[in-house]
Amino acid sequence: MPFVVGIRFRPAGKIYYFDPGELELPVGTRVVVETVRGTEIGMVVVPGREVPEEQVTQPLKKVIRVVTPDDLEKQKENREKAQEALAVARQKVQDRGLDMKLVDAEYTLDRSRVVIYFTADGRVDFRELVRDLASTLRSRVELRQIGVRDEAKILGGIGPCGRQLCCASFLSEFYPVSIRMAKEQNLSLNPAKISGVCGRLLCCLRFESELARTPDALTGEREESEESLDEEQVAFEEGPEGGTGQEDVSSGPVEKESAQAERPPRAELPGCDGTGDCLRCTSSDSCPKDSRESETGGGCEPR
What we know:
The structure is a single chain. Helices cover about 25% and strands about 20% of the residues. The chain is α+β, with helices and mostly antiparallel strands and about 300 residues long. It folds into four domains: about 5-65, no CATH class; about 75-145, GMP Synthetase, Chain A, domain 3 (2-Layer Sandwich); about 150-205, no CATH class; about 225-295, no CATH class. Helix 2 (about 125-135) links the parallel strand 7 (about 115-120) and strand 8 (about 140-145). Helix 1 (about 70-95) crosses helix 2 (about 125-135).
């Protein structure tokens, strides 16, 4: 397996693997690497380790060096020049009447290329714009269209919660978010309340969707679904006295009176205090254990 380090080029950006060679690169080290776009500065966020071959994009490029003061000074100058290039590009877009919004621009370390990010409702023919910008900026120009969520990630901001946007602070990738997640958490379905600054559903709706589906997720226990329970065989958790991990209580014909006699008192059931108001009884609309288990000694009485 190849030995690599993980490097990120933007805050909360995607992580790319590079070959560290003979360099010792702890987390937080800023390095110069060769990418498909040119020479760039990134930060080590994953220490050196071996990874499976399929996780590495071939050919695996090497880390050139640890950054020097000259590299950092040049990066600062590049950021200033990138803003100047962005202003020039915006003026040319306005002059040509193109339906596109320029978001950000960045130069590679060697200034061989400038990448300009933009958003648009549809496809935009910007070939003439690229030629014009290349002759004006005297550099290779790449226009890259992004979505509204990527725009929010680049620009940053404060969310409705008062904290920095998740996408701009720690989310390296976007995951699907659906209105169903808001319903499961009994949240308001008012679009203004469940939408982020990008106009799409809040990414954080996904964070607690699993907890909403499994009330016992905080304790590490998962609620059994009815589909997973066998009509002829019901198992219950290990009792307070120890015993086996799972026990068959209805593998054959059992009289109800016998089952009632063998059933432990409600107050002795794991996680139940016998009052009917414990966490396991009140964490959902129904008892975590269904009525079949109740009859055979496997859980609380149904509410």
